[in-house]
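User: Hey, quick favor. My workstation is busy. Could you predict this chain's structure for me?
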Amino acid sequence: MTGCLDNISDEKIVQYLAKKAIKRVTKAANNESNDSNPFVWKKKIEQEVTHGVPLDTFSVKSEKMKLKERMIEFEKLRKRREERVIEKRKHDEEMELLARDRARAEHDQWEQKLEEFHTKQDKYRTNIIESHEENIEENMGMDSLSSLSNECNDFGVRKPKYINHVHTGYNWNSYNRIHYDKENPPPKMVTGYKFDVFYPDLIDGNIPPSYTIEKDGNSVETCIIRFHGGLPYQDIAFKIVNNEWELSRKKGFKCVFEQGILRLYFNFKSFRYRR
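Assistant: No problem, here it is.
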């Protein structure tokens, strides 16, 4: 019997112990797992047995302890992952709040600049309109636009009362959008006119008042619009910008004579910039 044991090599003993350890681990895995064929790391077990790990290490009890330790580690990893998710969510919320505060501050600053811009432009527009009215008075020899003249001459012919509005604004065409912005706007330009001329006492009420466009000398930038109502009213004329009119009602054009008032409203066409 002793001779038979002497013939057994260390390698066979290790193989025997490894098989026994694998068998124990497989049994423990079958007891703890719902899988019919649970995974057993056989190569690792063989290496551990080769390096002298005791066979008791691979018992059912030890495998349960290892499984419990692994479950604890898995639980720690899960909690750590959840904590990272919560931290990331908090960080994203804080960054979103900071972005909102920054956007609100920029918006308030922009509104302040916009208000200052409109204040400056109101003053600028007032100066333009006053200059335009003075130009009309100087060139046409008329009274102030704000007054409603009722002067009569020796023949009873008188100037009709009138109200004139000059519309100004910015032309945000492609060229101006490239070279200007809201903080540095392009020069203001006249965009249209409104004329209300009063003819309450026309002798011939069957013929409505009319208007004509005349040249302003050699100027190509301005022209003369003349209103003719008939007796007892004399013609009145205004110098206006010489641009092409929008003749569509959708674009603001209006020319009617009703209740003794000639209303002429029009805007100028805006053309796209082309290189």
